[in-house]
Amino acid sequence: MSNYVELFNLTKTYRTPKGPAVIVKDFNLNIQKGEFITLIGHSGCGKSTVLSMLAGLNDITEGGIVLAGRELAGAGPDRGVVFQSPSLLPWLTAYENVMLGVDQVFYSANSDERREIVEYYLTVVGLADSMHKRPAELSQGMRQRVGIARAFALKPKMLLLDEPFGMLDSLTRYELQQVLIELWRKNKITALMVTHDVDEALFLSDRIVCMTDGPAAEVGDIVSVNFPRPRERKAVMEHPDYYPLREHLIEFLEVHAHRRQPKN
Amino acid sequence: MPYLELNNVTKHFGGAPVLKDVNLAVEQGEFVAIVGFSGAGKSTLINLIAGLLHPDAGTVKLNGKVITEPGPDRGIVFQNYSLLPWLTVFENILLAVDTVNPGWSKTQKEEHVLKYIAMVNLTPARDKKPGELSGGMRQRVSVARALAMNPQILLLDEPLSALDALTRATLQDEISRIWLEDKKTVLLITNDPDEGIYLADRIIPLTAGPEATLGESLKVEIPRPRDRKGINHDPHFKALRREVVETMLASKKDRHASVTRKLVLPDIEPEDLSAPPRPGWRKSPIRRREIKEESVEVSK
Amino acid sequence: MKSFKFDWLVLPLIGMVVAVLIWHLVSQTVSKDLPSPMKTWSESRDYVLHPFEKRGEMDQGILRFTWYSLILVAKGYAIALLLGTPIGFMLGLSKAFAKAFDPIIQILRPVSPLAWLPLGLVLFLGAGKNASELGALFTIAVCSMWPTVLNTAVGVRAIPQDYLNVAKVLKLSRTKTLFKVLIPATLPYMFTGFRLSLGIAWLVIVAAEMLTGRPGVGGFLWQEYNALNYSHIILCILTIGIVGFILDRLMSVVERKFKTI
Question: Does domain C61-257 fall into CATH 3.40.50.150?
Answer without folding.
Answer: no
